[in-house]
Design goal:
The protein has a single domain (22-100, 127-178), classed as Double Stranded RNA Binding Domain (2-Layer Sandwich). Helix content is 30%, strand content 37%. The chain has helices at 2-18, 53-58, 61-77, 161-175, and strands at 23-28, 39-42, 81-82, 89-109, 112-113, 116-117, 120-139, 145-154. A 6-stranded mixed β-sheet has the order 1-8-7-4-2-3. Strands 5-6 form a two-stranded antiparallel sheet. Helix 3 (61-77) packs parallel to helix 4.
């Protein structure tokens, strides 16, 4: 019975990880006039995948294309247009992956064994990766950061390309839902 109980808990943990929520936060310059920002261009960032496999994985050109496409779709839906010559805003994004461990301590259980009592510690450990996407909007004239959105989500193991794109669009949509900020 105890094994069945543990299997059910572990199964729920995996389902919860697969359906994890997106955590989003925003910060912005309260003195910036967001009504003046009508055009944008991407700030060219050097590809620096130095050091380890995680850095190389984050500098994936397929991922870059998906993130840029999702951000552009959201920004353009808000009425902004591309202007590579004289943009109002410069866009840049950053990604990161953190290894996380979730430990749940269920406390002691005291089942009987051969007519006696004994204590047994019940602990579940779940390891997962959490991805972070940061999107920065920079005033092109002053080169000052005016808006930053940050989103984190538990990453799925070996998702299909379609699922990756769906996740990115969901994350970016939720992140940019409050842009432009209301004062």
């Amino acid at each position: 019975m105890r094994i069945l109980y543990l299997a059910a808990i572990v199964g729920l943990a995996f389902v919860a990880a697969g359906c994890s929520t997106i955590s989003v936060s925003h910060d912005f310059d309260t003195e910036a006039d967001f009504t003046t920002y009508k055009t944008y261009a991407w700030l060219q960032e050097p590809v620096t995948a130095v050091g380890n496999a995680d850095a190389a994985r984050q500098q994936n050109t397929l991922l870059d294309k998906r993130i840029r496409s999702a951000v552009e779709a959201e920004i353009q839906a808000k009425g902004m247009t591309v202007d590579t010559e004289n943009p109002d805003l410069l866009l840049v994004y950053h990604t990161g992956v953190d290894s996380k461990i979730n430990v749940t301590d269920w406390g002691y259980t005291y089942p009987t064994r051969y007519g006696g009592w004994y204590g047994d510690r019940d602990v579940d450990v779940y390891q997962y990766e959490e991805g972070t996407l940061i999107v920065d909007l920079i005033d092109a004239k002053t080169h000052q950061l005016v808006w930053r959105g940050t989103a984190t989500k538990t990453l799925e193991d070996n998702p299909s390309p379609e699922r990756v794109e769906q996740n990115i669009r969901e994350v970016v949509g939720k992140m940019l839902a409050s842009y432009p900020p209301s004062k």
